[in-house]
């Protein structure tokens, strides 16, 4: 701990934490509403999760166990860097196991495993305003939220149907929270939207560059926008995971060679590894025991 | 004890981790309305401030927070001095411009309506009321529903503002504008965010 003396616990100074904490409490009290906050510069560029990092730093304590995922994976650059950052500045326990974590910071996925009461999911958000690409002026989008004027969003989804025959939005799919605010769930695949609905875990969203914090309390209604004749649907996959054989998890395509060969594997690495450890095998998985023998 | 000593002593012993501890209790309470969250005494403020209310003040208040205190607290030089020394807060006499309100006598408090509810564009610019009460085993049992509550949650603070059900219904009706309440009892706190509905009251 001696070499940490130059940093405050969890990097941020206490005045900044108080400011973020006040914003988090308001965000929880008004589900789906974007609370402005005085986002600080962090020792990483905007777009690398500075909003999520600030929220995590304000919430984190020495008793917490932190998990960080990037597109579902614990072992990609963003996840590894942020996990190492909090190990260094807060000396907290870290894990890759979803079930062991008290705080999970995520970039663009919700773990496959059902989250539990008492867990907190912190999202890194690039563009918090769901109406931003439809109306660039902040003064106008504020007013639209105030007046609950969301017709434009439905027009956008309708234009998708007119052009493509179906709603072509596949990620950052807009949701309505507790029947009031339309909210951007961050660029998670729409596959994950149903997991937000009535989740037992607290969900916090931090957008560093755009300086907004918002939240969904546990057991809150989160409905994906749709039409009666074009109901909301999630992606489906024609084949199971090639490593663990899971059906019904979100899959990534991995290119295997330059002849068009590829495999589909779970994007949630912890979920996939856990299944493999329990003996589930996909079409391209090594036989049980051979991986250990090779090591 | 001399007023000066009371003012300067009794703050957090570990300002960083104590504040984190109290904040997590507040976040837990706000995310789960009506849930009683235990917090040990981390401060020893002068009366009429209670240790938990003072801990919440030390966790959330600073020079960016405008705070209204009720007459019992603002009338005590030691209590006001403690708050100023340990948090650096900005005091106000106007309930309608307060970010926070600190209330020691719940029976005599102004109506919820007189506090700031925020604007339609910025409903977060509203007052969070911190109410000092004795316990969570009062005579009236409220049944709560809303975000953060799986089915229903019963809640029975020892003190409630007068005509609370009517006042709270009016507060709920103004959503997304409205005030949020934090109840600070001895060693435990609970919260009622503006989203919570009271569906039943039993005496």
Let me know the number of strands of chain B: 10
Largest interface, C-beta within 8 A: A-B, 43 and 38 residues
Please tally the β strands of chain A and state the result: 12
Biggest sheet character of chain B: 7 strands, mixed
Count, helices of chain B: 6
Give me the Rg of chain B, rounded.
16 Å
* Stretches with pLDDT under 50, minimum 5 residues of chain B: none
Oligomer: heterodimer
Question: What is the helix fraction of residues of chain B, given as a range?
Answer: 25-40%
The shape of chain B, in one word, is globular
Structural class of chain B: alpha/beta
Distance from N terminus to C terminus of chain B (CA atoms, Å) equals 42 Å
Helical stretch tally of chain A? 8
Order of helices and strands of chain B: HHEHEHHEEEEEHEEE
Descriptive notes:
The complex is a heterodimer of chains A (295) and B (203). Chain A has 295 residues and is an alpha/beta fold. Chain A contains 8 helices and 12 strands. Chain A has helices spanning 14-29, 50-59, 77-90, 138-146, 151-164, 193-196, 269-277, 290-294, and strands at 35-36, 65-70, 93-94, 103-107, 120-124, 175-177, 181-183, 202-207, 212-216, 222-224, 251-255, 262-266. In chain A, a hairpin with a 6-residue loop joins strand 11 and strand 12 (262-266). Chain B is built from 6 helices and 10 strands. Chain B has helices at residues 3-8, 15-31, 51-60, 71-74, 77-87, 164-173, and strands spanning 37-38, 66-69, 90-92, 100-103, 128-132, 141-145, 153-155, 180-184, 188-192, 197-202. In chain B, the strands form 2 sheets. In chain B, strands 1-9-8-5-4-2-3 form a 7-stranded mixed sheet. In chain B, a hairpin with a 3-residue loop joins strand 8 and strand 9 (188-192). In chain B, helix 2 (15-31) crosses helix 3. The model of chain B has no long low-confidence stretch (mean pLDDT 94). The chains are: A alpha/beta (295), B alpha/beta (203). The A-B interface holds A 8-9, 14-15, 17-19, 21-31, 33, 35-36, 58-62, 142-143, 145-147, 178, 180-181, 200, 202, 215-221 and B 15-17, 19-21, 23-24, 26-27, 30-32, 59-62, 64-65, 99, 119-124, 126, 128, 147-150, 175-176, 180, 193-195.
């Amino acid at each position: 701990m001696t070499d940490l003396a130059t940093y405050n616990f969890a990097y941020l100074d206490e005045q900044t934490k108080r400011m973020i904490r006040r914003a988090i409490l308001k965000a929880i009290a008004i589900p789906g509403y974007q609370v402005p906050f005085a986002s600080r510069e962090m020792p990483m560029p905007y777009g690398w999760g500075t909003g999520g990092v600030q929220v995590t730093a304000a919430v984190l304590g020495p008793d917490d166990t932190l998990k960080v995922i990037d597109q579902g994976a614990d072992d990609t650059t963003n996840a590894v860097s942020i996990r190492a950052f909090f190990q260094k500045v807060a000396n907290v326990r870290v894990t890759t196991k979803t079930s062991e974590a008290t705080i999970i910071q995520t970039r663009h996925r919700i773990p496959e495993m059902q989250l539990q009461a008492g867990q907190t999911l912190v999202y890194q958000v690039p563009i918090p305003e769901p109406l931003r690409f439809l109306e660039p002026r902040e003064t106008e989008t504020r007013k639209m939220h105030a007046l609950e004027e969301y017709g434009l969003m439905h027009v956008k989804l309708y234009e998708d149907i007119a052009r493509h025959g179906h709603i072509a939005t596949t990620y950052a799919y807009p949701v309505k929270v507790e029947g009031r605010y339309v909210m951007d769930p961050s660029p998670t695949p729409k596959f994950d939207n149903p997991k937000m609905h009535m989740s037992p875990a607290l969900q916090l969203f931090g957008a560093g560059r755009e300086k907004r914090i918002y939240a969904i309390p546990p057991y809150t209604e989160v409905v994906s926008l749709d039409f009666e004749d074009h109901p909301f649907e999630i992606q489906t996959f024609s084949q199971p995971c090639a490593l663990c054989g899971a059906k019904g998890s979100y899959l990534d395509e991995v290119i295997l060679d330059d002849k068009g060969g590829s495999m589909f594997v779970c994007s949630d690495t912890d979920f996939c590894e856990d299944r493999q450890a329990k003996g589930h095998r996909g079409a391209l998985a090594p036989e049980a025991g051979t991986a250990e023998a090779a090591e | 004890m001399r007023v000066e000593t009371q003012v300067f002593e009794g703050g957090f012993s570990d300002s960083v981790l104590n504040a984190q501890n109290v904040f997590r209790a507040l976040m837990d309470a706000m995310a789960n309305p009506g849930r009683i969250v235990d917090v040990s005494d981390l401060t020893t403020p002068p009366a009429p401030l209670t240790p938990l209310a003072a801990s919440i003040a030390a966790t959330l208040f600073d020079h960016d927070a405008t705070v209204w205190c009720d007459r019992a607290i603002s009338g005590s030089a030691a209590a006001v001095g403690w708050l100023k020394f340990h948090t650096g807060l900005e005091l106000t006499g106007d309930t309608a411009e307060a970010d926070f309100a600190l209330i020691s006598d719940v029976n005599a408090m102004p109506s919820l309506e007189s506090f700031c509810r925020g604007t339609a564009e910025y409903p977060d610019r509203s007052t969070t009321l911190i109410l000092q009460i004795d316990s969570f085993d009062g005579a009236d049992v409220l049944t709560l529903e809303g975000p953060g509550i799986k089915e229903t949650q019963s809640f029975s603070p020892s003190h409630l503002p007068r005509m609370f059900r009517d006042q709270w219904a009016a507060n709920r009706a103004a959503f997304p504008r409205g005030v949020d309440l934090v109840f600070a009892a001895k060693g435990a706190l609970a919260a009622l965010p503006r989203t919570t509905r009271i569906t039943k009251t039993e005496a």
